[in-house]
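anyone else get weird line breaks when pasting these?? whatever heres mine. first is seq + tokens for prot A
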Amino acid sequence: MNTAPASSAAAGEPRWLTDEEQRVWRAYVDATTLLEDHLDRQLQRDAGMPHVYYGLLVKLAEAPRRRLRMTELAKDAKITRSRLSHAVARLEKNGWVRREDCPSDKRGQFAVLTDEGTEVLRRHAPGHVNAVRQAVFDRLTPEQQKSLGEIMGIIAEGLQPSEAGADLPWLR
């Protein structure tokens, strides 16, 4: 709740959001929550997997030799290593991914997209792209699309500190 203008906050008090900032913030939260739910429901219905699993398959498909170290995949997907391990176990059970030991690091593993996983992506990518297009891009002008990309890039960059010891999901 906005109890004081941002410029008049006393030392030690929060910089409350202005009414306009509050409107923008709530619109952002509503839109991202609804979008993630929309995409998750579409993929569950059409492909039998949650959106996060689809994203993992895409990242592996785009990787050289369709394989990534598990730590790198967690970083790319912006999820905890524990959540990634659970997701990869489910994807393995479906035959879409397999794990391989890393020859240069006894503790490291690779996640590898299987031919069956590649086929699942090939079959379901058109429906997913259509859902993304209808939910986002068809609603925006080219200028709005460009602005959205720039804004999200700025926010993402600010939330990914590069210093050692940063509290990031893929380090947990």
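and prot B, same format (seq, then tokens)
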Amino acid sequence: MATIKQVSLGVHDDRRAGEFWQRALGYVRRPPRFEGDDRIVLEPPPGEPGVAVAMDTSGSAAEEFPRVHLGLDAGDRDLDEEVERLVALGALHVDRPFHPDAVSPGERPYVVLADPEGNRFCVEGHRRGRRGH
């Protein structure tokens, strides 16, 4: 059975995108595989689970309503605190015209953001001190 080894993001500025995602995920840059290999591929730190994320330079604009996006988990951090941290790193809030304002029973709340290159992603988690979340 196939598994996902890597996700590639289309970006204009691979260094800017790489810096954002490295800090957002706590990943490390993969060492060059050969002389002159300057491709930015981020991986989880050794021993940590996760999928590699590559920065593929692209001339096309990010999609307003992408068919595929990353879904992040805030982990132990409060959802709003994690969103604030990501925004401080350069993420932007995204309007969600086709998403419900309230989550379904049993689901965790989430926030839609975009990285500095416009690639959308969601962050889900728990909100401390708020009943029902």
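btw re prot B: The two ends are 36 Å apart (CA to CA). The first strand starts at residue 6 and ends at 11.
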